[in-house]
Design goal:
There is one protein chain. The chain has 741 residues and is α+β, with helices and mostly antiparallel strands. The chain is built from 17 helices and 24 strands. A seven-stranded antiparallel beta sheet has the order 3-8-9-10-15-12-13. Strands 16, 17, 18, 21, 22, 23 and 24 form a seven-stranded antiparallel beta sheet that branches. Helix 11 packs parallel to helix 14. The chain is globular. The chain starts with a helix and ends in an 82-residue tail after the last strand. Bound molecules: zinc ion (ZN). Zinc ion binds next to helix 14 and helix 16.
Length: 741
Amino acid sequence: MLVALMLSLGCPPHKNDPATGSLLAKGRIEVVEKPNTELKNDFYIGNRPPLLPSPLIKLPIGAIEPHGWVRRQLELQADGFHGNLTEISRFLIKEKNAWLSPTGEGSHGWEEPVYWLKGFSNCGYILRNRRMIDESKIWIEAALKSQKEDGWFGPDKGRKGAATRLQGREDLWPNMIMLFCLQNYHESTSDKRVIELMTNYMKYLTTVPEERFLVGYWPKMRGGDLLYSVYWLYNRTGDEFLLDLAKKVHRRTAEWEKDVINWHNVNMSQGFGQPATFYMQSKDPNHLWAAERNWRKIRDMYGQFPGGMFGGDENCRPGFTDPRQAVETCGMVEMMLSHEILLTITGDARWADRCEDVTFNSLPAAFTPDLKALHYLTSPNMILCDRHTKSPGLQNGGPMLLFNPHIHRCCQHNTGHGWPYYAEHLWMATPGNGLAAVLYAPSKVTAKVGDGTKITITEKTTYPFDEKIRLTIKTPKPVRFPLYLRVPAWCENPGLSINGVASSIKAAPRSYFMIDRKWADGDTVDLNLAMKISLTQWTKNNNSVSVNRGPLTYSLKIGEKYVRAGGTEKWPAWEIHPTTAWNYGLILNESDLASSFRVVRKAWPADNQPFEAEAAPIELHAKAKKIPQWQKDNLGLVGLLQPSPAKSDEPTETVTLVPMGCARLRISSFPTIGTGPDAFQWNTPAKPAESLPASSYGLQKNKFNSVKFDPVQTTSLRLEAQLQPDFSAGILEWRIETNER
Ligand SMILES: [Zn+2]
């Protein structure tokens, strides 16, 4: 064993390749599954024993400077609704805010302010935006000053969330979010008060009796967030009591290690990986496997369409699995963060692939391209975003598809952490004092490597819209360290060259190139992640297909007309209506897929925002036919898919596909067109009766108002009340009198 290792160190793996030979003169290139955890990192805080060693280590905030299109997302967020939410959201009014009160009394002491702070402060730290850093400081300082004698901090008496019956200290959920805010603040400033506060709070948690610990729906489902914070603190202080507390947190958290324990989309996205976090301590492979098993089960049952998410338009519901089912924007950002955490825990590149899938294909479409408005629900097939309810087609009723910065409460506050955490995980430190490029995007990383030399690597690329990535190393003196480059699962033949000399080493998909050599100032690495067109066939969704090229999935480009729908002059709300047809099936030559599509490159958008249908820097042109029977339903939702291949007598047309993340209106799961005897004739679904003709509706408060209808025969009735903006009301009781004899 030892001999083999010595040989591989001493000899190039491809002796006959002069290029590889010269590359290896100064070191070696290997293909590995993940960084070697037998080595240590002397500069960044990974897991402390007895926790399992970290294959990848998150760099402190500030080490990574996002550039290009990623930076643009953060700048747009800073100028958009999220960066200005203090002037939009009533939950952030400072007067009487329980999060700002030294006694912990007041209103709005639940999740909204801390949800907002988590993304807002991170965005400010990354952009070094003084306004945002100063505003964040107000909330951070208040939290630091709120700690009680016994270790509790934050809102105390009277905490009450709309979605919880828990009072005050019973509800540990909002504090979990503030712990993330405090960690980010500490990473950015090294303020020791954070360690003190967290230690005292964790000691308080050890005193909470087991039967009152992590009680209630949200705390129980989301205990994994608390577990993460316990380990974060343990890795910095080594306080042994934290390991016992971690066991208690795991014991009292919903049993995600047994199954997908809950079908609320945000709980799932946040909780599915919890057992893998505990695996760092338990070392039980079942805990590690549980995260993978949960993810697969979720995708298998409710994620049979592209975009990396699943249909949970509040909760997943049996039978609601068509690609028109949507997911909450909160679900997307929590899924991204779960993937980022799982990537650091396991080093397994599959979590990076999955993170990019959600980040590139799902998240951008949840916001208007200027990031000045968001909506609550986004789905892969979405043909109209208006103010009208889509319930019961989508579970959550109300204007959930309307792009409106004034509503959508949890998402409105929470979704600001998506882009900042993504930007903070582009690069990671590795054992052996190295660096890893794990998520590719234009950026610059500054970190200590090798013997402690501080180096900078600039990453130039327009990935994921292009396949070329160039890294340039800047170092004050030559320094030896391992540089890891992730090879995505979709990339069969990545090209690698160092200082212009190509390597012949072949990397398996879903692995890392590990280049261990003495790096000199100005050294360059070129990575070519060859992207080819592939199809995913969704056999469980009527054999529909989605079209991928590299990490991007492509959607039909549908003309988008923005229609003003309320809001304020400064922060308007928008409906988006289709101006072109969307009911197409693709004509594919499956024996030569590439011939079915033409890749068309377009100019890079001048404003650096590629996630817009008209600005997409790359398009695919394809042949398609309309399927006239495919229509929108009475709610304005895209009709359910019927089996493919579908029959169509319509003329062949050329259609344009754009990256899914660029399309607010989109068809991402397509029927295919067939001509043979196996092609299916689609039906036009029978329209349910729209509203019934009736006498006028009464409007008396707290009294029965009767309405008379012409007689109908039906087995069910649905009552739908539509309120004017900013009014709230409820139906107290309803009775149906029938004249059935
Ligand atoms: Zn939400």
